[in-house]
Request: fold
Amino acid sequence: MKLKPIYGVCLLASVLAANAQTSEPATEKLSNLIVTAGFQPFDADQFGGTTTVISAEDIALMQATYLADVLRQVPGFAVNQSGGPGTQTQLRVRGAEANHALVLVDGVRVNDPTASDEFLFNYGLLDNVERIEIIRGPQSSIWGTDAVSTVINIITKQAHDNSLEADMEYGSFDTKRLALNGSLQQGKWSVQAGINALDSAGSNISRQGSEADGFENLVSHFKWGYAASDTVDLTLSLNHSDAMNEYDGTDFTVTGLPVDDDLWTERTQSSAQFAIGFSPVDSAWQSKVQYNWMQTDAKNFIHGLGQNSATDSDSQELKFNSSYQFNDKQSLSLAVDHRQIDFSQRGEASPFGDPNQNQDYNVTGVALAYRQQITSQFNWHASARLDDFNRFDDVSNFNVAANYYFNDDWRIRGSFATGSKAPSFIERFGFFPANFIGNSDLKPEQSDAFELGLVKSWSQGQLELVYFNQDLSDEIDGFVFEPDSGLFTASNKSGDSER
Reply:
């Protein structure tokens, strides 16, 4: 639900501006390039899949505060929200599950292992966003697990001048927002940093009672870049969110409707990336090494009783990719990555069982990507990936796509791709007294998808007609009744689920 102020005031102040003769913004330089579709920037008109790019200018025109409000405008996207600001918000793409959408911030995975590997859109704000790149369809041949229905890459701003900007808002439900952002660029180095504070008293979605469900979120970011030489550049980015959201319970016995309860969650999420890029002068090689880290910590409370449960996770990833440009018509990329994920759950033991546990898994992936421009009218690209899990069997995925231009205005494109989703910690080990118990024997879900698109372009617009067909095998059903325990559990379904 988008917050629509009944009354409001907005103040935008540019306090400091310098270096007016700086180069054009990155969004103009990269207007038709997407960095999410492969291991090196990809011309959107040469990509065989469906893409959407949302710029900072688009976001400003929408006057949106929440990421979910922007994504509602994307074809094939369905956003469901259970109440006011901060309440549970899920995204489903082309009929897929919420944890089949992989969300990145500057290429760092931010899906939450403590929330069944979903990205929690109720915490997603739009401050400091330069552009959002969206690739629909399975992208596991590039990004591995979770990239079944889409990849959403939120690219943050980078300093191009010296500036300081403040943004203040006040609106309905006693909602207040204050943002402060600044950037510095001096010679070979640049810094972009800021903080965004949001506080809303919220509203009551229960048919009974009067307790409103409030929301607070304090978000900070820092990005540093340094051109060490003509061939080496360094980047460091840090993001942190400290949030609290109140919510109501549910009457599962009689009505299935919300019950006016005083419940809340306190959640922090931190992520970091350090990257070293190598681009030798007059060389066809380009390489990058990066370390990604993300940590989440969620504590759940009941008024009068205090904390009743908690989950946390820690993810670390080391990635290397290298690309070679044979000529202006062919390129080959290689990527190797290793990711370690740790998970813990805390709560009170009961006759149904003990939720206290520590779990982990790791995965090593190897991927190849190839592109070729065969004629001025026809190009194709392919990618393949093998993921070696220490807890599951190996999983392989591929993607083959092509474009054919009839003329400057018309083209047809198509792709066939596979995707996979590893079982989440909640599905395998989660425990909720008198409700759910995990199944450690689950297999990864696997998907294959065919897509065909006809594109008509104009100088100021584009029209696409897209057909897709996607099947999911070994789908995980999280509502299977287990007679022995009297609880629900998760199980792989037989047959295919069609979209």
Observations:
- Residues 1-30 have pLDDT under 50 and may be disordered.
- The chain is about 5% helix and 60% strand.
- The first helix runs from residue 26 to 29.
- Residues 249 and 374 are 59 Å apart (CA to CA).
